[in-house]
Amino acid sequence: MAITKEPGQKGVNWSNIAVGGIMNMFEVTTLGQPLEVLKTQMAANRQQTMFQAIQTVWSRGGVSGFYQGLIPWAWIEASTKGAVLLFTASEIETATTAVGVNPAVAGLLGGMGGGIVQAYATMGFCTCMKTAEITRHKQMATGIKPPSTWAVFADIYRREGIAGINKGVNAVAVRQCTNWGSRMGFARLAESTIRNVKGKGENEKLTPLEKILSSSIGGALATWNQPIEVVRVEMQSMAKSADREGKKTILNTLQYIYKENGIKGLYRGVTPRIGLGIWQTVCMVSFADYVKAWVKGE
To answer: End-to-end distance of the chain based on CA atoms, in angstroms?
Structure first.
């Protein structure tokens, strides 16, 4: 998410916090959740092709199957994580630039720090519950009727407490840190490249298509960390495996996936995630800039 400062601005721009929540809600309610469901389906069922994953998701109720977990978990997550990301990233950027750090590097650090804080503050339990909602259907293969979302929540909380609800949050934090650091870094690099190719100055505005192209490049290249996402899905999956005993950690889960499915298993679901990364970055960088301008009455 691009961190922008107005001339003379000090502290947090509160309108940007509102914009962050609104744009996240827009992103997840449109293309975000269907791509999230498909990506999670492939990461949790690593033997499936994309076509098979689409068929499986469709079998859960047609179009509504692609919006599984949207209400309430994805909406709760989306309405808070954008605000947390902007707040934290702005504070980190302000502090680092004040001691002479390059603005681009300060923005990168802000994105990474914001991603970590949003993971621990808002995303851990929501991401866990969204994944549980999607992967609990794997239980049907054993003849067990999947419980309701709230029954899953109550059962996890009763057995494992807050730690269980936040299971896999460390993997989420690593993912978000690398996600937003990469998205912002690659998007800004793409913007600089476009300016050089077009002969535009640093203060000249890019066209809407150029901004969308830059965000698309940033979102696509940021999916290099797909193994972290596959590990996160496996750690939060409701499916039980006979050869998986004891506590799941990032390292032993990574080893398990590699043993079972090889290097390809660590990149299952990368195609829909590229689409998801592009859409998220376009919404939270390109579209958000126009919304912020509209809020200011420009």
So the answer is: 21
